[in-house]
């Protein structure tokens, strides 16, 4: 098997709100869009994101009312402090302040309008 692209599919109440969040704060572009569906991409190694509106018929009937919960979209970056400053200035909801874990992980989290947690990480040597 050869994987050419990695994509995460998230079911949300308002796909447009999440779309706008990822466009405004994380440099994503819309690859495809239709009623209840948005596909987002970037020009680098970041995971592609598909946003599906809760209830959309493409989902199995037993999964249509579920929304993304209990997960985080994680980006490993450089210049973590500058990213936190930028996101704070842009008005993003910083839901976990910048901190450093004992194992060398520095991180902070923001949350989109649908409750999707985005965690930015930088590893300390």
UniProtKB/TrEMBL annotation:
VOC domain span: 4-123
Name recorded for this polypeptide: VOC domain-containing protein
Organism field: Streptomyces hiroshimensis
One Pfam family linked to the record: Glyoxalase
